[in-house]
């Protein structure tokens, strides 16, 4: 009723979540309510630029329409289960999704910049032998709302609304958390589009990095459609070793992977591909490994990110000695390629590279129905 109190919203689960919807999708929602296109632009601004989670805050929309929106829709956020802060300032959040599954998101502050590491899957489809996340079975892909929601949750926590034009704490978004982003292509692309929207989250495409273990067909597709920065989890320069460390290499070996990298759009010294290389003692850290890495990357504008291995319970690998890591880096740099040694961040709260893992697990259908194996046998 015009001028009356806002109606009490229906149960949240019965209302459609507007989080994750693009501008065009919001237009269709408003048209279904008999509203004009500009309403969608207003709501998009409130959700993605101002970060509101309640329709009552949308002060340039009439009270009757706000009441109707509250009855029909909600603006979701992942639930924060735990929030930890490392001694070095790194923050890690364990987030619970609407179905009870959980993922982790990490913020790494550095002088002049801050990087948010975002998950794209519950668990992981890959089984990289050195990665703790890879020991957690894949449960499901995240939706665009759940991926973008991690960015918005972090902005909530860091007080970064409305979207700042400068002096940001979160300057970069990297899809390097739990999961293989390119095995969840459509939802990742939708979330990236929301991050890039100038009237929303407003991250430059050069401030968004997609990290992949080497899903060759989707690298080519991402180059054409997303055009964000690319990082490759390489970790070995020989197929036999990479087959062991990164088993997806058996499907798309190094030669095919690097061919896709060479074809990546806008590849130049200003837009180099980052190759991630975890340093494993006695496994991939010899002088010969460094020279082979230089050989296979020849002709690709590259940056090598050397990552000291972050131990986790049950791992069979050890961290390369600091002197060995330094020597490996010197060989790379002496060849004229940038090589950085990543300083471990957040390892005291298991937030470092390769350490993320939630407690979610794939539950068989018969368990979800409350049955036992005996029930199934007698069915």
Count of discrete structural domains: 2
Overall outline: elongated
Structural class by sheet pairing and helices: alpha/beta
Q: Please give the radius of gyration in angstroms.
A: 23 Å
Uncertain ranges: 1-10, 351-358, 362-379
What's the pLDDT, averaged over the residues?
A: 88
Fourth-level CATH superfamily of the largest domain: Aldolase class I
Helix content: 25-40%
Strand content: 15-25%
- From N to C, what is the helix and strand string? EHHHEEEEEEEHEHEHEHHEHEHEHH
* Total beta-strand segments: 14
CATH architecture of the largest domain: Alpha-Beta Barrel
The number of distinct helices, counting runs of at least 4 residues, comes to 12
CATH topology of the largest domain: TIM Barrel
Largest sheet: 10 strands, mixed
Task: Please outline what is shown here.
The protein is an alpha/beta fold and 379 residues long.
Structural description of this entry:
With 379 residues, this protein is an alpha/beta fold. It folds into 2 domains: 12-74, Orthogonal Bundle (DNA polymerase, domain 1), CATH 1.10.150; 79-349, TIM Barrel, CATH 3.20.20.70. It has helices at residues 23-32, 37-49, 63-72, 144-158, 185-196, 216-225, 239-245, 254-262, 287-296, 322-334, 365-368, 373-377; strands spanning 16-17, 73-74, 79-85, 91-96, 102-110, 113-117, 121-122, 140-141, 172-175, 208-212, 229-233, 273-279, 302-308, 338-341. The strands form 3 sheets. A 10-stranded mixed beta sheet has the order 3-4-5-6-9-10-11-12-13-14, covered by helices on one side. 44% of the residues are buried.
């Amino acid at each position: 009723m015009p001028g009356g109190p806002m109606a009490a919203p229906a149960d949240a689960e019965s209302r459609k979540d507007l989080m994750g919807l693009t501008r065009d999708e919001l237009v269709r929602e408003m048209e279904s309510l008999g509203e004009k296109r500009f309403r969608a632009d207003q709501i998009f601004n409130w959700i993605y630029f101002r970060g509101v989670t309640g329709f009552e805050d949308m002060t340039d929309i009439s009270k009757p329409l706000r009441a109707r929106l509250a009855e029909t829709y909600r603006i979701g956020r992942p639930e924060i289960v735990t929030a930890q802060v490392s001694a070095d300032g790194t923050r890690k959040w364990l987030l619970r999704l609407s179905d009870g599954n959980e993922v982790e998101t990490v913020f790494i502050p550095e002088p002049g910049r801050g990087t948010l590491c975002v998950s794209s899957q519950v668990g992981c489809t890959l089984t990289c032998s050195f990665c703790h996340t890879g020991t957690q079975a894949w449960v499901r892909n995240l939706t665009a709302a759940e991926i973008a929601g991690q960015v918005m949750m972090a902005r909530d926590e860091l007080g970064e609304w409305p979207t700042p034009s400068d002096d940001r704490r979160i300057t970069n978004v990297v899809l390097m958390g739990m999961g293989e982003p390119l095995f969840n292509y459509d939802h990742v692309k939708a979330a990236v589009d929301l991050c890039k929207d100038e009237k929303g989250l407003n991250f430059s495409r050069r401030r968004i990095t997609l990290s992949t273990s080497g899903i060759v067909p989707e690298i080519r597709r991402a180059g054409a459609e997303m055009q964000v920065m690319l990082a490759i989890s390489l970790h070995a320069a020989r197929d036999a070793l990479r087959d062991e460390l990164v088993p997806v290499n058996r499907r798309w070996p190094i030669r095919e992977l690097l061919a896709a990298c060479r074809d990546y759009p806008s590849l130049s010294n200003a837009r180099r591909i980052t190759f991630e290389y975890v340093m494993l003692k006695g496994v991939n850290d010899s002088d010969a490994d460094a020279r082979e890495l230089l050989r296979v990357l020849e002709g690709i504008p590259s940056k090598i990110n050397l990552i000291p291995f972050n131990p986790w319970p049950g791992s069979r690998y050890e961290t390369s000695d600091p002197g060995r890591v330094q020597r490996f880096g010197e060989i790379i740099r002496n060849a004229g390629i940038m090589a950085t040694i990543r300083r471990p961040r957040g390892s005291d709260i298991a937030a470092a590279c390769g350490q993320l893992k939630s407690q979610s697990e794939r539950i068989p259908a018969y368990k979800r129905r409350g049955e036992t194996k005996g029930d199934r046998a007698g069915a």
